[in-house]
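Incident log, structure service

09:12 report received: a user says their structure output differs between two submissions of the same chain.
09:20 pulled the input from the user's history:
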Amino acid sequence: MSTSEVLAPATPLRRARRIANIEVSEILRIGARAAQLKREGRDVIVLGAGEPDFDTPENVKAAAVRAIEAGETKYTLLDGTLALKQAIVGKFKRENGLTFGVDQITVGAGAKQVLHNALMATLDEGDEVIVVTPYWTSYADMITLAGGVTVQVPGREENGFLLDPADLEAAITPRTRWLMLNSPSNPSGAAYDEARLRAIAQVLLRHPHVWLLSDDIYEHLIYDGFEFKTMAQIEPRLADRTLTVNGLSKAYAMTGWRLGYAGGPRELIAAMAVVQSQSTSNPCSISQAAAIEALNGPQDVLEERRASFLRRRDLVVDALNAIEGIRCRRPEGAFYTFASCAGVLGKTTPDGKVLETDADFCAYLLDAHDVAVVPGTVFGLAPYFRISYATSEAQLKTAMARIAAAVRALR
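09:34 re-ran on a clean worker, output below:
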């Protein structure tokens, strides 16, 4: 090439249209901002992440070590080893009264991948998926990536942030493919009892083209004697169009192990395997060995940790309700509170900024009082904010004191 020849500048990256309006999770952005403030020497308390502060149980870690030492480090079947699928079949039967064959079980790199696989395997352009607000923010983006349309149906606070069957009926169209139901819920902690599930089931039974995606990831984190039920358990007539999703991340504090699973109709599981075969193939072999021990081993740790989360829930709810302008419903499950900040909007911060939105309030808490929480806008319902109480009681007490001081400083 001649030294005088001038190369044309590189063409700027053109993002695919499917991600044109999608960004990295706002929750992760808030976490990154909090981490930056920590690096600057600020004592920031982060109440944004959906991650237990407990360690993975010792017996589960030991099982992983044994698997490594035994050389279980090769590829496995693409959607889970036979041994793990058998353990999952046993779990569903023992805890949920659901009967599956191993060919009705899929295992992925986290429940998030399982959800993604289901949507990718079933949605065509323009197909509709009903989600209940407030909803886990990734739902809508996964639906978009799969070519679908998110139909938001409000779970109003006066209804416990739960789906009203009449609202569901009104939202269903000929293009509806799925209803996504998360119980207990991220971000609200709201959970559906058997009576509410039956009422929703009656609507779905009238619309046989609508399938149900039941996200049960917080199943073991329930309080006050609440009895967890899942839809396929209480209404067997929906079993042939229900995908029941669960995982190890929350109950067993295995977020980094990336292991989720689901049970459902054979034809759906087979279609999901096609998607997974062309993305990750099998989940980590060591994580699968650890998951077998988590599901089959001693379960005492679940109750111990649930009791700890219950104390933290009550600490946070009571502290928030003692703050003028804040209102917080006591959730049935998970490890989140979803509190209204409507009573502080319109007020002015000490530096003269008017708080117009829940995002403004959350930014004020972080920038001026070193507490990171997530605005309800992120979850499709404002003006609220989500707190994850999956951290120590000492940290929670300090954070609640800071939030109270922040509100008192408003004019």
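09:41 both user submissions now match this output. Likely a transient worker issue. Closing.
09:42 reviewer note: The first helix runs from residue 26 to 39. The chain has a mean pLDDT of 96.
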